[in-house]
Amino acid sequence: MSTSASLKNVIATKLLESDLMVARRFLGSILADQENSVIPTFCMNNYLSLFIYESHRTLKVIDPQRAALLAYSNEAVIEKARHSVKLFDGSKVGHAGVLGDFTAIISAGRERFLNNTWFPPARVLETDLGEWRYQGRLVTTTQVASFFMGIPTIATSDIPAIGRTLMTVAESQARYVDQATESLPWHGPSFMTTMKFGELKSRDRRSERYFKRLYDPALSDELTASLSAFRCSLNFLDVMLSADQTAASAETMLKLRFITLYHVLSSLTELKAEYGSKLNSTSLGLLNAILSHKSSATIMHSEGRGFRNTLVHYTPEERVAPRLSLSLPYYGLIEEYYPEHDFATLGQEICEHTTRLAMLLDEWE
User: Fold this and answer.
1) Alpha carbons 352 and 350: distance in angstroms, whole number
2) Which of 17, 44, 271, 303 has the most CB atoms less than 10 A away?
3) Strand, helix or coil at 219?
4) How far apart are CA 286 and CA 295, in angstroms?
């Protein structure tokens, strides 16, 4: 094996182990506090699935013996949840694939929870959408949770049932993560340790009425639910995951912010191109404020795709590998793709832009 190939494999291993240790600390928290675990798991599941799916794929290439020793189950669910991180980029047919998923999710919820009351006039009080806000910010809904779980047809308003499903998947995730990280040192708690669960509030709504008041009247229910997924992802990163200030988590925090911003921005660009002519001036103004911001341009720069791919797939590109070093912060990856930045400055800009976009989407509501 060449020196360059060896360095690429070492860096890939270190990057995936950093992510898996964040997963290990989180899974340890939810298994220790199952009473408060369901909503954080709704929010974190797609990222856990991303870590597991991509780390296993990478290890099969760079360390097949280690990969063969890992217990990897619920593969189909984990793969679908992993691809949900990409939002509109996660389907070969673009936004249409995501809208199809949300059509199924919305229909399943309405079929299960509406028109069940024996007294017809009381049916106006029935609800089919649950939402959760942390510190006043929307972090998940039953529809968004279903999309990010990779089980799109399940009606997630049945919290006890979905809790059991989540725990089954979480247990298999935990087995994989535990085996993959058993020789690695522990580095502190997860974000759940400092969460104030009294500030996590729920509310039930009737989606067909509620969606008419959200974002823009020209948007279909499926597009409205999709925008809620963008918004929940950003709010989760901004008000919940940001509580993880452990130094060992810093690389993964930058990664999750960057890839989420990248796919939110890409998806909003597609939404504007497809539906911009139908949107009102307020909606267009907010979209333009998001897409034209200098930090959006930084993330969506032509080099951003290569950086995003390395963050997601772990193995550095051949063309940058000779200039990387284990002695540099983040192995010199940031300087290769963003020469005007280093780990600290890019991390700060990405953090601030996560907050900015989250607040603009909250404003659009």
Assistant:
1) 6
2) 44
3) coil
4) 15
Q: How far apart are CA 202 and CA 140, in angstroms?
A: 10
Q: Which residues pair with residue 140 across a beta bridge?
A: 132
Check if the beta carbon of residue 20 is closer than 8 Å to that of residue 2.
Answer: no
What is the model's pLDDT at position 91? 66
Residue 162 pLDDT: 65
Which tokens hold the place of 197?
Answer: 């669960």
Q: What is the pLDDT of residues 140-192, one digit of tens each?
A: 998 999 899 887 555 545 556 666 776 777 788 889 999 999 999 887 889 99
Q: How much helix, strand and coil, in percent to the nearest 5, is found in the chain?
A: 75, 5, 20
Q: In this predicted structure, which of 38-42, 157-161, 293-297 has the lowest mean pLDDT? A: 157-161
Stronger pLDDT, 1 or 274, i.e. the higher one:
274
Which token pair is 329?
């912060």
What is the distance between the alpha carbons of residues 329 and 341, in angstroms, rounded to a whole number? 12
Which residue in the block uniquely carries the two structure tokens 């949300």? 102
CA 158 distance to own-chain centroid: 22
Q: Which position has the token pair 């950003």? A: 234
Helix 142-149 × helix 159-181 angle, to 10° = 40
pLDDT at 123 over 50: no
Q: Tokens 């919290």 correspond to what residue? A: 159
- One DSSP character per residue, 277-337 reads GGS-HHHHHHHHHHHTSHHHHHHHSHHHHHHHHHHHH-SPPTTTGGG--TTSGGGGHHHHH
**Tokens, residue 357:** 């976009």
pLDDT above 50 (res 119): no
Encoding tokens for residue 352?
Answer: 């601030």
